[in-house]
Amino acid sequence: MTDARSAMFNAVVHGKLVRQPCRDCGVLKVEGHHYDYNCPLDVIWLCHKHHKAEHVRLRREGIEVPGREHAPIGFRFTEQDHKLIDALKAKMGLQSTSDLVRHGLRVLAEKEGVTA
Question: Residue 1 contacts by C-beta under 8 Å, 6 or more apart in sequence?
Answer without folding.
Answer: 9
